[in-house]
Amino acid sequence: MSLKEKGTVMDKEGVERSISRIAHEIVEKNKGTDNLVIIGIRTRGVFLAERIAEKIKQIEKAVLPIGILDITLYRDDLSAIASQPVVHKTEIPFDITDKVVVLVDDVLYTGRTIRAALDELIDFGRPKAIQLAVLVDRGHRELPIRADYAGKNVPTSQEEIVEVRLEEYDKKTEVVIIVGRG
User: Fold this and answer.
1) DSSP 80
2) What is the pLDDT of residues 93-144, one digit of tens each?
3) What architecture is the 13-75+88-156 domain classified under in CATH?
4) Which of 12, 15, 31, 97 is surrounded by the most beta carbons within 10 Å?
5) DSSP class of residue 178?
6) Ranges assigned E (strand) in 76-173
């Protein structure tokens, strides 16, 4: 089965507008930036976290600590993804105890990635709260997890793939839907 792009959900400007809106919503919901930290889930969640932190810096003139979470060893499908999974380093060079952690990922789908991220985060301390920011919420949850901040809700079928492409990793910024064709 080959894959084919069905269409573009967000272009570069749409992604930037969503990041700007998410940053404003984070600041508003938390009444500023006190006790706020941002942690991106590797890979694209890290770049989105950096973009959100930069936007908050422009809005509030505050520099937020940014961490990187690699959830590979916390996944519940670890044996299914690879016999020798590639594990990258989790980098959280600050204490998250009593902080409001904004966890950032590119796409929210079943909720399993976020469950793994929550499990790992708790190993680093006891945050005051954990909030979730995603660029795309595509539905189809298998766990009771929801985003506090979503750039765009995109209804999809189970056969479709939502692919976030970011300049920092993919040399292009956009969100597309991919479908299989037999």
Assistant:
1) H
2) 999 999 999 999 999 999 999 999 999 999 999 999 999 999 999 999 999 9
3) 3-Layer(aba) Sandwich (3.40)
4) 15
5) E
6) 100-108, 129-137, 149-153, 161-165
